[in-house]
Amino acid sequence: MIGKIEEMKLISQCVLFDNRDAFGKLVDAYQPEMRRFFLNLTLGDVPLSEDLAQDTFVKAFLNIRSFKGLARFRTWLYKIGYNVFYEYRRREMPVSDLESPPDIDSVNTAGGVEASLDIKTAFATLSPAERSVATMFFINDLPIKEIADATGMPQGTVKSHISRARTKLETVLKDKYL
After folding, report:
1. Rounded to an integer, what distance in angstroms lies between the CA atom of residue 18 and that of residue 12?
2. What three-state secondary structure class fits 36?
3. pTM score, whole prediction
4. CA-to-CA distance for 92 and 12, rounded, in angstroms?
5. Which residues, including other chains, have CB under 8 Å from residue 156's CB and lie 6 or more apart?
6. Interatomic CA distance for residues 119 and 177, integer angstroms
7. What residues have CB less than 8 Å from 17, skipping those under 6 apart?
8. What per-residue confidence (pLDDT) applies to 57?
9. Which of these, 15, 89, 140, 142, could form a disulfide with 146 (CB 3.0-4.6 Å)?
10. What is the rounded CA–CA span in Å between residue 107 and residue 144?
11. Residues 6+ apart with CB under 8 A from 36
């Protein structure tokens, strides 16, 4: 993670001088976080997660001049990533799949650590909106305000999604471990 001053310096170099090396440093700083975000949203689909992360950074680079600095760059990047993911879902999934959570049995459980699979299974029970918000809150430690800014949802809606996700995750994991 880079500091806010370093971040603004790199963004300024991108905007004023079209400095691709400066943008590369921003990518290096945020790429692991964005990949983790997409891995959770795609339920572990690594190639798709990498493609979505790459699309996010391409859109960020092409639109860096529209970044106003009112929020952190990370928040702006999450907003782009969130939109990239839902744009992909609209293109690739039938409308009925967008509204219903994926079937737990359809989650790929081959290989990996059992606890990791349990988390994937638990996340599979969440609706796409709950999974997005829960990933940003529980996995990426974004504050509610930044999640609201990134998703365009009111803070109360974000809190509701977090609460519902927490309840669903507790139920699924409690059944497994208690």
Report:
1. 9
2. helix
3. 0.77
4. 36
5. none
6. 12
7. none
8. 97
9. 142
10. 28
11. 139, 140
Cα separation of 164 and 7, whole Å? Answer: 34
User: Are residues 26 and 7 in contact, defined by beta-carbon separation less than 8 angstroms?
Assistant: yes
Q: Which residues contact residue 48 at a Cβ distance below 8 angstroms, ignoring those fewer than 6 apart? A: 38, 42, 88
Alpha-carbon gap, residue 157 to 43, rounded angstroms: 23
Q: What's the pLDDT band for 121 if we cut at 50, 70, 90?
A: confident
Chain-centroid distance, C-alpha 139: 9
Query: What pLDDT band is residue 147 in, cutting at 50, 70 and 90?
Result: very high
User: Is the pLDDT at 113 greater than 80, yes or no?
Assistant: no
Does the pLDDT value for residue 62 go beyond 70? Answer: yes
Q: What is the Cβ-side half-sphere exposure of residue 102, based on CA atoms within 13 angstroms? A: 18
Which range among 7-16, 27-36, 37-46, 110-119 shows the weakest confidence by mean pLDDT? 110-119
* Separation CA 69–CA 5 (nearest Å): 12
Say if CB 112 and CB 14 are below 8 A apart.
no
- Tell me the average pLDDT across 73-79: 95
CA 52 vs. chain centroid, Å, equals 10
